[in-house]
Amino acid sequence: MKIGQVAAQMYTCREFLQSPKDIAGSLKKIKAIGYPAVQMSGQCAIDDHELKAIIEDAGLICCATHESPQMILDEPEKVVEKLNNLNCKYTAYPYPAEVDFTSEESVGQLIIKLNAAGKVLAEAGQVLTYHNHHMEFRKLNGKLILERIYEETNPEYLQGEIDSYWAHYGGGVNTEWCRILNNRLPLFHMKDFMITDSNEITFSEIGKGNLNFKDIVPAAEAAGCEWFIVEQDTCPGDPFDSLKISFDYIAENLCDLPVGVC
Predict the structure, then answer these.
(1) I want to staple 146 with a disulfide (CB 3.0 to 4.6 A). Which of 59, 131, 136, 179 is the partner?
(2) For the domain that residue 248 is a member of, what is the CATH number?
């Protein structure tokens, strides 16, 4: 992994993205930390062209986005237009809203719609990925739902954005999912997993938690990962401070590791 492949998920700073002026200031902070790219998510309503100009003015690349589940599944043409406006190739289905994971019909419909939406994006030269949480690691009729999502969709139409925290929380092994998604994992969410002094599970800055990114990063890179995206759903203080801690740890400890050492 090169430092030029590391991005910040702006959902981490969502409280500071509530106006175009706030977005501009926040992106400049991200650039000052050292991040070369961002994944846009959690910002206020803003014209695509204005957002693109703000990103470029900050000296950043928009490597990916998260779009609303409903728009991806029901109006993928609008996603294509937005990505084109942002000069961005990748997006992710962010959360299985209104999907009943106890229902074969509900899960089946999600898979069908993901495949269809991904086809629309693929035909436009774009890529739809799937962002997991922990619920996809439950079994339905004896099989992990996340396995089904990938097995029952065309790899040309749906690729992966594994979230390291939620995969671990759900009982998955991150390095194994990198292997499963070989050549199907362009995006990877780096998110650490911590046990607090009060024995609670929470998010943490990269390097402060329990996940072994010295194994995970080479595994993701061997799978063909293009962007390693840092996200922290909740932070103990200023989210920009947390993103800096994560960036500094990555730069000092995780860049240029040998591929396939795990």
Answers:
(1) 136
(2) 3.20.20.150
